[in-house]
Design goal:
With 106 residues, the chain is mostly helical. The chain has helices at 13-24, 26-39, 46-55, 58-74, 83-105.
């Protein structure tokens, strides 16, 4: 890569390269979600829709990823991501994606 952000040599850089654009576009997804919700005369509170927008995709993906990474760690596989990378990914989501989702829904 030209900018050396995504390098196959550094473990976890490819997944970070996928998660960063997702985090940056969360506000767009939340805006569209709330807009459609209000157009269809949603009965629940809009905050419920924002929370569902924020967790409906990342939580199942995270569960499958953590399960696969745990299996890889238990078998001693060297391709498993280290815990520091996992905490970095969780921090990026918690500190960037979730607030952007809420801002996009407001």
């Amino acid at each position: 890569s030209l900018t050396d952000i995504v390098s196959p040599i550094r473990r976890g850089s490819i997944i970070i390269g996928i998660i960063i654009p997702h985090c940056l576009t969360c506000s767009i997804g939340s805006f569209v979600s709330i807009r459609l919700y209000l157009q269809m005369n949603g009965k629940c509170d809009w905050a419920c829709c924002v929370v569902l927008t924020a967790v409906l995709f990342p939580v199942p993906v995270a569960v499958v990823f953590l399960w696969a990474n745990t299996v890889a760690l238990s078998h001693g596989c060297t391709s498993a991501l280290p815990s520091s990378t996992i905490f970095t990914i969780a921090g990026v989501y918690a500190l960037i994606a979730f607030p952007l989702t809420v801002v996009g829904g407001i």
